[in-house]
Structure formats: C-alpha cells, structure tokens
Amino acid sequence: MTLGPYDALRRIAYLLERSRAGTYRVKAFRGAAETVLGTDPSELRSRAAAGTLTDLPGIGPATEAVIRETLDGEVPAYLKSLEDSATEPLVAGGLEVRAALRGDLHCHSDWSDGGSSIQEMVVTAMELGHDYLVLTDHSPRLKIANGLSPERLTKQLGIIDTINSAVRDFRLLKGIEVDILDDGALDQSPKMLSQLELRVASVHSKLAMSAAPMTRRMIAAAQNPHTNVLGHCTGRLIEGSRGTRGQSVFDAAAVFEACAAHGVAVEINARPERCDPPDELVALALDAGCLFSIDSDAHAPGQLELQIYGCARAERLGVPLDRIVNTWELGRLLAWANPA
Q1: CB–CB of 229/265 below 8 Å?
Q2: How far is 260 from 26, CA to CA, in rounded Å?
C-alpha cells in the first residue's frame, strides 16, 4: 500500500535519523510533515495541480517532490532509496541482547535538546517493540540544551500522565538526565527527583577536571540515593559533527566500586560518536560487579534504533543479560530504581 504524503515524509525523516544524517535535512522533512498534517488533503491536491505546494510553509523542492509522488500513488524515489539502504543492519551482532531489551532508559524530546515531540518518541518506541521508555530531558543548569526548570518538569510530568492514559501495553516513565555538579551534587531538588521514576546522572561540564576531584565528584553522585544510572561516564566523543573529545580522567575502579555498592547501573551509551565507556572500562565495571543499562541517548525518533550499537558491544564484551537493567520487566525495574 502506498503511503500518504504525511506518512512518507515522516518515514523519510525517521530513516535519515537512523542513518545519522544532518539535522537540517531531518528538520526539513519533519517540518514538511507537520505542514501536510495541518493542511486539508483537497488543498494539497489543488496546490499540486497548480504548482503552488512550495508556497506552503516548510515545503521545498525535495519535500514537494515527495508529496507529488505520493499524491500520484507512487512510492517516492527518495524514500525508496532510503528504504533500500536500510535493509542492511546498522552493525554486526547484538541481536540476542537487543531481543532481550524491554526498553530504553535515556532519550530526549523537544522539551530540551531533542528534535521531536514526546508523542513522536513514544509512537516510535512502541513501533520498535519497547515495553517502556524513560523520558530524560536535561536539568536546569544545562541551558545550552534548554534544561527543564522545576516548573517545566512538573508540567511535563502531567503530559506523561496524559500519554500513559491513552496508550496500552506500554509505559512512558518519568525521568531526567540530571547534571552532576562540580561537587557531585545533582542539578535538581531532592523533592523533584523523588517525583520521578528513574534518573540518569551525567557529567556535562568541566570534563577536563583533574582526576582526584573528578573521582570524588562521580563517587558522590553514585552515592546519591536518587541516582539510578551513571550516564556516558567518560564524556568522550570519538567521531561525528561535534568533533572529537578526549575522555575524562578519574579512578574508574573506585567509581565503579561505588556504583556496584549503591546499585547504580553503568550506562553503555550506544551513540556511535560516544561509544562510552570504552571497552576496557566496561570490562572493569564487569569485574566490579556493576549493573548496566544499554541506552540510545536518542534525540530524535530514528535514533532510538542506535541502541543496537550498544547491544553489539555488550554481546562482544560478555555482559550477562540479567545484569542489564533494561532487560528487566517493568515492575522489577521500578522496584530497583525506587527502593522502599
């Protein structure tokens, strides 16, 4: 069955995100999809006949071609080329681990620095077969990422309740990616953190701090009773549009010992530009007895599929499935994240 204009544009955007294409290209197709959604189908047809589709906001030559082809009952050529490319797996291996995962504990929406709505992230997670997804938009200090104030986060929690009341066999969990401050404190009040269901704590500032204070900082975060997952622990970037960045220096054995002692999962951040922690630190965390969480850190719906990169690494490095917390069913996950 041929897709309509909205579904074709949305699918193209998704496949571009999956392939880690430039943000501007993705935004062009998602913006066009929103315009199509808000335009009467009869107007689309009349504009296509009159050659005035590009007078609509966000419709350019490429997106106009997609709309025209779908209105003519054809599969858009651009969509077909992307679908052909998508038949190849993103990475070799990881299928057994991916099949065991029930959800993703780290993703962002357009409430902070993500590119799509909460609803779009939820729909995609459901299409991928997840039982749950944790929404972890940024905390207030990260202004460059539009971090959520307590007031905005409170409003977001109400929207999550509304979404959960409208879906079946799926749960959107209330979460945050909370900044680890210079002294190891978390960038949100304990009262606010206690209203959430799962918390990822990450270092985003002063990544080049010397080893001793960075170690103290991370251990303090691991000891905080509200911390559930230690996010992308070295902060490194090994490729991508943001360039590269060396990893933070800290006593990894001491940090992972603290994580193991306090039941904090070490995140295997699946984004290829992060691939964090590196293999030798995953092995160290394994030896320390740590739990793990394999997360996409998705900032767009198509990026939820990047989780497979982390799965392939976990499989290759011998991480036991039962020590990966997002293989757990929802009740067990919530009991671990919020002990009595």
Answers
A1: yes
A2: 40
Whether 175 contacts 267, CB under 8 Å: no
Q: Indicate the fold that domain 5-85 takes in CATH.
A: DNA polymerase; domain 1 (1.10.150)
Q: Cα(179)–Cα(128) distance, rounded to whole angstroms?
A: 29
Given a contact cutoff of 8 angstroms between Cβ atoms, the answer to whether 202 and 177 are in contact is yes
Q: How confident is the model at residue 256 (pLDDT cuts 50, 70, 90)?
A: very high
**Furthest-apart CA pair in the chain: how many Å?**
68
Could you list the beta-strand ranges (E) of the chain: 103-107, 132-135, 171-179, 198-202, 229-230, 265-269, 291-295
Tell me the β-bridge partners of 201: 178, 230
- The DSSP line for 119-142 is HHHHHHHHHTT-SEEEE-PBPTT-
Q: Which value, in Å, is the radius of gyration of the alpha carbons in the chain?
A: 21
Model pTM score: 0.94
**What b/e sequence results for 11-27 when a residue is b if at least 16 CB atoms lie within 10 Å of its CB, and e otherwise?**
bbbbbbbbebbeeeebb
- Domains of the chain by residue range: 5-85, 95-337
Given 3.20.20.70, 3.20.20.140, 3.30.70.20, 3.90.1580.10, which CATH number is that of 95-337? 3.20.20.140
Question: How much is the pLDDT for 324?
Answer: 98
> DSSP letters of 288-320?
HT-EEEEE--BSSGGGGGGHHHHHHHHHHHT--
